[in-house]
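Q: I have two molecules that I believe assemble together. Could you output structure tokens for the complex as a whole instead of separate predictions?
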Amino acid sequence: MSKTVVEINNLVKRYKELIALDNFSMSIKEGEVFGLLGPNGSGKTTTINCLLSLLSYDKGEIKIFGEKMEPKRRDIKSRIGVVSQNVAVFDELTVYENVDYFCGLYIKDKKTRKQYVEEALEFVSLTEFRKFFPKKLSGGLLRRLNIACGIAHKPELIIFDEPTVAVDPQSRNKILEGIECLNKKGATIIYTSHYMEEVEQLCNHILIMDKGKKIAEGSLSELKGMIKNTESVVVNIRHLKDENIEEIKKLHHVYDVKYMNNILTIKCSGGKHNITHVAEYLKNENIDYDRIYSEIPTLNDVFLEITGKQLRDKE
Amino acid sequence: MQVFKAFMKIVKSNFVGVILYFGICVLMTIMVASQYGGNKGTRGYTNTSTSIIVNDNDESELSKAVVEYLKSQHDVDMAEYDEDKVKDLIFSAYYTAYIDIPKGFMERHLDNDPLEINAVFDTSLPDGNYVSLQLGSYVDGIVRFENAGFSLSEAIINTQKAVEPDSFIDLKASSKGEGSTHSKTFSLFLFLPYGIMSIILWCLLPAVSRFNVKDVKDRTMVSSISANERNIALFTGSILVSSVVYVGMSVFVSIFLKGKIFSMKWLLSMMNLLIFTLVTVGMVVLISSFSATSILKSKDIIINIISLGFSFLGGIFVPLEVLGDEVKTVSRFLPTYWYALGLEKIEKGAVFNDILGCFGMEALFGVVCVTAGLAISRVTLYIKER
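A: Yes, here they are, computed for all two components at once.
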């Protein structure tokens, strides 16, 4: 049985009347890629800041590598790497000097550090840019530099806080491959992102939080099993009467039907032959259609169904 | 060590700006020093010495005093020549003047029936006239002191003191009101705070702020170095950079002052400058306690407002006497004011306690800056936590 790397128990953090974390608990096992999801203001960043002892908390307990995490626990901190959402590097230092600086905060031995820095640059494919200053780098290269700075000291636990914001698909792909590679090498990963397809691709355990509380947790399939929608049948139809829509709603397992812009979306809960039932109905009613296909719910559907669809920034 | 090294690298990256500000400072100081430059005239005056022949026929106390005085001013050959030979020597420019002190010179002087000293020189040339004037002034000086009740011996000593070049020039400058009454030490030291502020702020403010950018700071804080280690490294770096700037400025000034270094005036002025340098570091602590990103975006404006504003209001660019009362009321809250006032007191030879008072006020400004800076950082942290 794999060891627990991170354990948070009943964490409470208040900002005056606002409860940012409300008895929040989570546990991360060694070797996991742990997806921490939640809408804006849900408490993800507060959780990470508390985890890293950047922020004090009112109640609860945080254990990392089985030991209580405190601001002065340099031994624990030395085993953690952080890749922040914003690029945190020095504009006045070259790519090499930046990685060397952050690596040097952990690794004192010059020879070892040099080797680690070279490996980190190699890992993010920035070797040829080693003498460049950050201002000369593109957005994608900057993100990769940001990652190199966070992982150069070979941490056992790496926290990626939205590392792919505002990067092109090629760079994003490179970053995701890198994270997978780090995980294969043994690192435990905490990954936060608003890009659900990334989380779906990377994470083997996902926690969704909202308003400082854990709402759902589990593997991707477990999360999908938690929502009502198990399948969406989509049909391209040019003409459809209201009475037909009402009749489709009455089909077995169907709980929601929408018809917009010649696209009929039928949401089903349970059932294994929903697409067949819909196709049969359309045939029986002599309704012509161009295409019919089935969609299984994505993490995005899970997320929206669990956290709701209203905008959070307006709250 | 890692933080310190990165800090120094960032400081180094601002080197072009340092050269620029140092250049401005050097240029300004030279211009102002030459404008004040009373001492430049002094050197030209006192260094004018010529070769003359003196023939002392009297060999009395008074004649010997005259000879000693002339020796202190010129290259004197003691010899006796006839009139034709003297004219030949002066015409051929071997000598500027021939001074012949007649026998009985002192005796007749004491009898209030003085004998004239015979001075032969080319009246069309300034040097001979200059020697003659010096001689006349010296003898007149002795007479005046005697008339004031001093004995001949005392009159000779007092006159000797009175005709010393420095006191003569100082008297001349202040009585006529030409140029500055301030010494070169004062003039050169007065303009250094502008350079100190500009260079130190230029070097330290971006470097410290860069380390205070939230994400960089957080990334450093989650590493295995402690907050204290980081702060000590930044503080050490700041002190080292400030020391280099201080030493650089001091060497620069000392080159101009040459023989006047290690005088009490110089030492006190150096102490004044050292306190001001430390106060500037305190200003860095205060400014960098505000939003690092905003500081980095507007560092040029901040540096120029502070260095120019403090210099104009504090009596660095404009003499304190010229500042209006309302302006002075504001100026009293600036370290530059107390620096300039301290320098003024050093210049006038005020009692040490007075000078110390100015140093204290300057230092107080630094202490207030550091305290306020730390308080703001604490409050910011508190707000972040709450």
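A: One point stands out. The interface with chain B takes residues 15-16, 52-56, 71-72, 74-75, 77-78, 80, 82, 84, 86-93, 97, 101-102, 104-106, 149-150 of chain A (CB under 8 Å).
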